């Protein structure tokens, strides 16, 4: 990976060196080094050397997380809400059917149109012979165009030729999204044992468990859903049973508040549901924080936001790049935000970060250059992208 300044000649490589060992770069000193191992430290300042992707490319994301948590604490949940991933509740498999040698011309044209994303062209193909792959392709084209009822009909016709797990998964997902729980359950039962099929069965079970009670779902229903879904991934954008249950509860509670029906019982249910999460990552706590902020539950907002904000600020201040001279003003602002958060003053905290949230260098995943103090340094290429890259390190 090549790092370079856009205002001077400062540059460095990171990664396995052509002659052995590693090309490395100190994010704190902004200096290049040769390292014997990927875990080497800077000989000048002792900071861990970057021998691959440098850590500073994550600074902008971490800053947005901190700003979002502080603003939600201050009664403005939407900046943080916009950072949350859209996790699927029911997943499908819209992989186009494969063409085969000897396919009739109309079928071959249909499959090619779907493969290349030309949904209108696919739907215009005539003289199809009823091959289940044709119905599947038409179903995919219909769903991609938002014609979900017509798509479900095509999957039904595809299934008339025999069982097909992809068709069951796809039609079941369409039925589940249309609140046809019984139809979805019948399809998911025959959708196989893929991760997608298991997740859909688990998701449907969570939806049905919540529909049966004004409170939190029964623990045995959650346990059964988890057993079906398998190990809960920690990765921030992946769905889990706990994340799904919280999302559904939050939607229900917010709707009750809009209707003027919110009571202390609803708050009790939400607090109890915090224990449904499988993980305690920032993204899990952010879901809780956004919900409480939208509900204007100030005590619960502060309870969740304060530790999250302090942890994020501490992590930022521990980053090698933030300890360097080039980002000393940034470190001062984060320190001010930390102190304000510790004093339970989220408005003063996010205002301390205001200018940095508009810093173009950070937004482009770059750092102020310590060498020239005019430009910014960041990733500008990778080995093999340009002629002569194989000679790097000289």
End-to-end distance, in Å?
15 Å
How many helices? Answer: 17
- Integer-rounded radius of gyration: 27 Å
Shape: globular
Strand proportion, as a percent range, falls in 5-15%
Largest sheet: 4 strands, antiparallel
Quickly give the structural class: alpha+beta
Whole-number average pLDDT? 96
Query: Any low-confidence stretches, pLDDT <50, length ≥5?
Result: 387-391
The overall strand count is 7
Residue share in helix: 40-55%
Give your account of this protein's structure.
50% of the residues lie in helices and 7% in strands. It has 394 residues and is of the alpha+beta class. A four-stranded antiparallel beta sheet has the order 2-1-7-6, with no helix packed on it. It has a three-stranded antiparallel beta sheet with strand order 3-4-5, with no helix packed on it. Helix 7 (165-177) packs antiparallel against helix 8 (181-189) and helix 11 packs antiparallel against helix 12. Residues 387-391 have low confidence and may be disordered.
Chart the SSEs and their pairings.
Layout: E1 2-5, E2 11-13, E3 15-16, E4 22-26, E5 31-35, H1 59-73, H2 78-81, H3 105-115, H4 119-124, H5 132-144, H6 148-159, H7 165-177, H8 181-189, H9 195-211, H10 219-229, H11 241-258, H12 264-273, H13 282-294, H14 298-317, H15 328-342, H16 346-352, H17 360-363, E6 367-368, E7 376-381
Antiparallel strand pairs: 1-2, 1-7, 3-4, 4-5, 6-7
Helix pairs in contact: 1-14, 1-16, 3-5, 5-6, 6-7, 7-8, 7-9, 8-9, 9-10, 9-11, 11-12, 11-13, 13-14, 14-15, 15-16
